[in-house]
Amino acid sequence: MTNRYWRFILPLIVVEAIKMENLVNTELITNYMRDNKLSKKAFCELCKISVGTLNKILNNVHLRVTPYLKIARLLNVRMSELLVN
After folding, report:
1. The model's pTM
2. Which residue, 79, 81, 58, 80, is CA-closest to 70?
3. Which of 25, 33, 62, 82 could cross-link 38 (Cys pair, CB 3.0–4.6 Å)?
4. Confidence band, pLDDT 50/70/90 cuts, at residue 22
């Protein structure tokens, strides 16, 4: 499949997922921050995302996939563990 296809279909997949009440296991993120004594800003610097993006993720309103991948990489978990079923 081409990049053009994924650019179109991936946002649609994520939008469908957003319809769920809770998309992300926010507890996993907050526990990591607490256990490592990280502020939101420090956590975001490690993930290379903005604090605004993190806030959207924690409030389950973020639509892009890339920040979720960055967070999963930092937490050393699979995307399936980060996302709520």
Report:
1. 0.69
2. 79
3. 33
4. low
